[in-house]
Design goal:
Elements: H1 2-43, H2 48-51, E1 54-62, H3 65-70, H4 73-77, E2 79-85, E3 91-95, H5 99-145
Antiparallel strand pairs: 1-2, 2-3
InterPro entries: JTB (IPR008657)
Subunit structure: Interacts with AURKA, AURKB, BIRC5 and INCENP. May be a component of the CPC at least composed of BIRC5/survivin, CDCA8/borealin, INCENP and AURKB/Aurora-B.
Membrane topology: Single-pass type I membrane protein
Length: about 150
């Protein structure tokens, strides 16, 4: 009985580590990417859209190959919008989040969670079968000893 508890504890520990790792990979990567991007933004001069009002002249769209190589804003999310600052009349690009990108992330997360559900359901079923075998073996031995 004591060995069963150790197996359950190990399984629970593996489950916690696996869930933590997957959560970090799925959710933490974007947080780290945004944190690194903000660190590089501090080193540069402050863009005009942070200090003054602006008007969006081109809506949020995916970066093309040239923009991806040239604009640092493209490296953050892969999408940019063109803006015009009100006071300085500068044309600048600003990183943005598109609905398409958010939907892709959502379905990626849902798929990951569905996969984990299937994996852990299979683990529960196999564990239950193993415990049932141990219980029936124990009952068989008790009946034989009578």
């Amino acid at each position: 009985m004591e060995s069963d508890c150790r197996i359950c504890a190990r399984t629970l520990a593996v489950y916690i580590v696996l869930c933590s790792w997957i959560s970090f990979r799925v959710l933490g990567a974007s947080v780290l990417r945004n944190a690194n991007a903000s660190d590089t933004m501090i080193a540069e001069t402050t863009p005009c859209w942070q200090n003054e009002e602006f008007v969006v002249s081109a809506k949020c769209s995916p970066c093309n190959d040239f923009q991806s190589k040239v604009l640092t804003e493209c490296k953050q999310t892969g999408y940019v919008e063109k803006i015009i600052c009100a006071k300085s009349h500068k044309d600048e690009y600003k990183s943005c989040r598109s609905a398409e990108m958010e939907e892709h992330r959502f379905w990626k997360f849902e798929g990951t969670m569905l996969g984990l559900t299937v994996v852990f359901a299979l683990l529960v079923v196999s564990r239950q079968r193993a415990l049932d075998r141990l219980a029936s073996e124990k009952v068989r031995k008790q009946i034989e000893s009578i």
